[in-house]
Write the structure tokens for this entry.
Amino acid sequence: MQNFTLKQLRYVEAAGRLGSIARAAAEMSISQSSIAAAIEVLETGLGFNLFIRTPSKGIRPTPQGVQSLALIRRFLQQARNFQTEIQSVAGTARGTIRIACYATAAPSFLPIILRSVTERFPELSITVLEGSLKMIVDFVNEGEADLAFTYDHFRDAKHRFYPLFSAPPYAIVPSDDSIASAGRTTLAELSEKPLVMLDLPGARDYFADMFQKAGYNPVVVHSTRSSEILRALVAGGFGVSLLNIRPLDYREAESGYRIVPISDNVQAAPFGIAINDTAGIPGMIMAFIDNCLELREKGAFSHLVVE
């Protein structure tokens, strides 16, 4: 069996992940023929087909292809870990770290972390991938991201988790609503109001289950995948809503809505870093994690929690 190059393996992995030779070529900034040639080299060397080609529908992996792609991703991650380790031999963290972030939470906590990391490790480059709770787990599992900022409840069991803070759910209500002046609220009180739901995979079920377990069934009048639009709808008087992490730009007198703690004994959601450490954690990435944990000890995230 002939040797395969890292470049060929990356091309094949991209094709399998994206389900398309054309999309893989666009992502890798090369020709489609180069992607197709890499697939052909691997299939010839392995002696079996990695993909099933379907005209106008792209490609999908065969059973052997599924297993092969998992091995390729694991090897590419090990190769990447080797690269980052050898770049840091001089003792200075350098290279690129790819972080996946839950899109709704990212604007609140990410500037704090990036500012600190940039000051401490000026030669470190950060690539940010945003997505839903499910997407960012997939980013880590498929090797697209080195780590993910997410809630403990939504990570894979095989991931190591480093908690940064625990965020209990809170209510968002229009500034002129009676709940705003009361200062606290309950799920019972919120269930009697029209509800604006954050309609993202994982988030919707999380908030819906919260009401159902307490025996309430609120009426959802609007749903949105954007936390910014959610807050705008609440400020416009279209209903109330719930979130976990305080927006960084929240100004009580100017935002048009109020953030109100919930009195019910609802479990706080631990938020932190999830990482797949089956291949070991490179020193550069561990230095990044340690920096985040130091920020936690200094209370850098305390203002994001509503209690």
Remarks:
- Residues 170-261 form a domain with the D-Maltodextrin-Binding Protein; domain 2 fold (CATH 3.40.190.10).
- DSSP finds eleven helices and twelve strands in the chain.
- The chain has three domains: 6-74, 88-166+269-304, 170-261.
